[in-house]
Amino acid sequence: MTDIVRWGLLSTANINQALIPPIRASKRGELTAVASRSLESAEAYAAEWDIPLAFGSYEAMLESDAVDAVYISLPNHLHAEWSIKAMRNGKHVLCEKPFALTVEEVDEVRAVAEETGMVIAEAFMYRHHPQTKLAREIIDSGRLGDVTVVRGVFTFKMGGRDNVRLVPEWGGGSLWDVGCYPMSIAQFFMGGAPSRVFGDQWIGKEGVDEVFVGQMHYEGGRMAQFTCGFRNPEHAYVEVLGTNGRLILNKPFKPQLTGNHFLFENENGAAEEIPLPEADLYLGEVEDLQAAILDGSAPYLTLEETRNHIRTLLALYESAGTNQPVGLD
Questions:
Q1: What is the pLDDT of residues 142-172, one digit of tens each?
Q2: What CATH number does the domain containing 259 carry?
Q3: Which DSSP category does 172 fall into?
Q4: Is residue 259 pLDDT above 80, yes or no?
Q5: DSSP 24
Q6: Does the pLDDT at position 291 exceed 60?
Q7: Where a domain ends, among 98, 123, 148?
Q8: Which ranges of the chain does DSSP label H, i.e. alpha helix?
Q9: Res. 260 pLDDT band, cuts 50 70 90
Q10: Which of 87, 104, 119, 250 gives 92 a disulfide partner, CB atoms 3.0 to 4.6 angstroms apart?
Q11: 119 and 134 in a common domain
């Protein structure tokens, strides 16, 4: 291993376009390769994005000595499978959310990481941004008083119906796709997984939830609520309510669009802008994985947090299916 992490893209998914610039902007990373299911597709993508190496299968890139770490942007149901294959081939992994579709898959991935010594992390880009970190610092400082409720929204209007997000057996559905964002930020601000959840959903003709509403209960009477879906215009919002004030994050998952600030409002309604440094939304997760690989530091977003993400999402789906609250063991 050199002092540079050589990255490979495992697929040619659209989300790659968000990762390519920060990989190239990072001081200790370089984009080396892309793999697709055909060599023709990989070569065309490599030419378009000026990537040195193209592989005509995912296996071929994983077997190559030219790649140190891979970014997995495959459909949801393939995340755990290819994370395991990558690590068994000596590759570190940044895996798109959701990390897996079952808790058993999370545990298997974690066991393989421990066995192989490879680094793996879930790619929740917003967690690495200064806005999220500073909001958590304000919460921990006690400035809000006791946090009682976290509320969040993440919606967008689905275009065509030929979309992997609408395929049930591939992990489709709005909760897996965008609901995981307000769910995860609530867990981060609350300090862990809830004790019980209640979910409700509207199922579209393809058989996946196109609207989902969730409520999560925590000890001490604290609660979190969120809405997500594919039927409304794009909107994202997070509000943290405390006994002494509230935080307002108008662009919680795309904070670069906020004008580099978010809001604190005290109990008298006076608002204060909290300034933020400029930061690339995806650079943090790239540099965090590189630091874990090259320096041996622990990934900022832990696998225990990831496991709680999946546990909670599954409990919410169970609740929506049974119309009953579901406790988390």
A1: 999 999 999 999 999 998 888 999 999 999 9
A2: 3.30.360.10
A3: -
A4: no
A5: H
A6: yes
A7: 123
A8: 16-25, 39-49, 58-62, 79-88, 103-116, 130-141, 174, 180-190, 283-295, 303-322
A9: confident
A10: 119
A11: no
- Tokens representing 252 are 């919680």
Q: Tell me which residue of 110, 236, 102, 107 sits closest to 171, measured CA to CA.
A: 102
pLDDT per residue as tens digits for the range 41-64: 999 999 999 999 999 999 999 999
Q: Which residue has the tokens 């008083």?
A: 145
Residue type, position 223, single letter: M
For this structure, is 85 an active site residue?
no
Edge-to-edge strands, sheet with 92-96: 53-55, 29-35, 5-10, 69-72, 92-96, 120-123
What gap in Å lies between CA 95 and CA 79, rounded to an integer?
7
Catalytic residue among 27, 85, 91, 97: 97
Q: Which among 244, 46, 226, 59 has a CA at the least distance from the CA of 138?
A: 244
Distance, CA of 127 to CA of 105 (rounded, Å) = 22
Angstrom distance (rounded) from CA 271 to CA 293: 42
- Token digits for 175? 């909760």
Q: Is residue 285 part of a domain?
A: no
Are 114 and 153 part of one and the same domain?
A: no
Instruction: Indicate whether this model's pTM tops 0.90.
Output: yes
Residue type, 264: F
Tally of domains in the chain: 2
Strands 29-35 and 120-123: unpaired
